[in-house]
Every structure is written in structure tokens, then in C-alpha cells.
Design brief:
three-stranded mixed beta sheet, 255 residues, 8 helices, globular, five-stranded antiparallel beta sheet, alpha+beta
């Protein structure tokens, strides 16, 4: 059984039993924090507080989903880092590349658990046989989360995610279905045009696929005999010339 996280304990303490009941402004108020929306330059949100009270300012120009994550992120700071001075830049919120010891990563994890709590999410995931972007978007809409946060949270059934950007591809992390020795190939993306659908989206303006498409395992992985396996790839564009790719490995694994 998965341990209850700090954010989930707050939700359970408030009697939250459905995603529609996750009212982040009300939750913030219950924690002594008032949420205000205003135009912010250079950051997505800030929090200023005393020992017991705080004001969270959220960039009014952000998308509704990103505003929600920003509130959760600042509540994570309020919970974990009260009394410290931290500045949350635009790259500090909802950034899975942060080091595990980074306070911003702690705040992101808290926000993810607050918006997509395991005790509400896992019963839905157990009914899913195959994760696609269409399914992820249904979950995203149900929990009022971003698509990126939803996919990152779903690694228990969707093992591999890769964030691709110009000029290089980087791994955002793998889930429980991928062995530790199995690593993604990191190399200039233009080497993979015509082989990776993600590269075709970045360089050739290819459209998003409606369904995962099969591709050779050696297009993404680098281990002995990986060319013997087919995997499935489905990608979508992120802001700033980036692509997030969902890779599905065979049910019997890779080797």
C-alpha cells in the first residue's frame, strides 16, 4: 500500500473524496494562506508570509491548469520551507528536471500529490489497460491538471517519458516498468529525424499522432539487442520548441 503523503493527509483531513472537491483556494485558506491573482513578470507565483499567515500571488496570465499547479507549488513551500526565502522563477514550477534534493522539486511533488492524489487517482488507473494521450487528457480534465503533470504522475502504468528539446533530447525519468540498466539514447535530435516521431514534430512540423505508433526500440534505447524490440511512441508539443514523448514498452519487458 502506498504511504499517504503530506498533501494527501491535508485532503483527507478536509474530507475530499472526489477530484471536483479539490478547491485549491479553499485548501490554501485552511492552511492560513490567501490566494491572489495578479500580473507577475519573471515568475509564476510567489508566497510571502509570517509565522501563521501568508499571501500567495499567482500570475493571472498563466493557464488555469498552470495556476492551479502554482498554488499547489507555493503551498508546498508553505508546508516544507516556511521561514526560508525562495524565488520561484518560470522554470522552477512544474519542472521534473530539478534535483530530488531541490526545494523546488519538493514543492512540485507536494503540488502533484495535492492535485492528483494517489488515493483518488490509483483506482482510476487500475481500470486503464493502455495509456494514450487521449486517456491522459481525460484524467487531466477530471482532475483539472496539466497534461504534463498527469503523465508524470502516471509512471506506475506508463513507464517511460522523454522530454525533447532543441538541440538535444533528455530523459525526464522512467517508471517501475523499466530496468535500471535501460537508458534512453541522448544525442542531437537531428540525428533521429525520420526515425523518431518526436524529431519529425520538432524539425518537420509533423502533426501529433492520435494513437501510439510502433517504432524500433533502438530509436530510443541503447542496450544490447534493443533493435529486436518494438516500442510505441506518441508525442505532443510543449511551449518553447519542446516535445513530450510517451514511450510504451512491450508487456513482457525489454530483454
Amino acid at each position: 500500500m502506498t504511504a499517504v503523503t503530506a498533501a494527501e493527509r491535508i485532503l483527507l483531513g478536509l474530507g475530499v473524496s472526489d477530484p471536483t472537491e479539490i478547491d485549491l483556494e479553499a485548501i490554501a485558506w485552511s492552511r492560513g494562506a490567501l490566494v491572489e491573482y495578479r500580473r507577475l513578470d519573471g515568475c509564476d507565483a510567489t508566497i510571502v508570509g509570517s509565522a501563521r499567515k501568508a499571501v500567495i500571488a499567482v500570475n493571472s496570465r498563466s493557464s488555469p491548469e498552470h495556476r492551479r499547479f502554482s498554488i499547489g507549488h507555493e503551498l508546498g513551500h508553505w508546508h516544507h520551507h516556511r521561514g526560508r526565502i525562495l524565488f520561484c522563477g518560470s522554470k522552477d514550477v512544474e519542472n521534473p528536471e530539478d534535483d530530488a534534493l531541490n526545494p523546488e522539486r519538493h514543492a512540485d511533488t507536494f503540488a502533484s500529490d495535492l492535485i492528483l492524489p494517489n488515493y483518488l487517482l490509483h483506482p482510476r488507473l487500475r481500470k486503464i489497460r493502455r495509456m494514450t494521450l487521449a486517456v491522459a487528457r481525460e484524467i487531466r480534465d477530471e482532475f483539472s491538471a496539466s497534461l504534463t503533470a498527469t503523465l508524470l504522475k502516471n509512471r506506475s502504468i506508463q513507464p517511460v517519458l522523454a522530454r525533447c528539446r532543441l538541440p538535444q533530447q533528455e530523459e525526464d525519468g522512467a517508471g517501475s516498468g523499466v530496468p535500471t540498466w535501460c537508458r534512453l539514447v541522448v544525442s542531437p535530435l537531428n540525428n533521429w529525424t525520420g526515425r523518431r516521431f518526436a524529431a519529425d514534430m520538432l524539425f518537420n512540423g509533423a502533426a501529433e499522432q492520435n494513437w501510439p505508433r510502433k517504432i524500433g526500440g533502438d530509436a530510443w534505447f541503447n542496450f544490447r539487442n534493443c533493435d529486436r524490440f518494438d516500442i510505441e511512441e506518441q508525442s505532443f508539443m510543449l511551449p518553447g520548441e519542446e516535445v513530450l514523448t510517451v514511450l510504451t514498452i512491450p508487456e513482457d519487458g525489454l530483454g
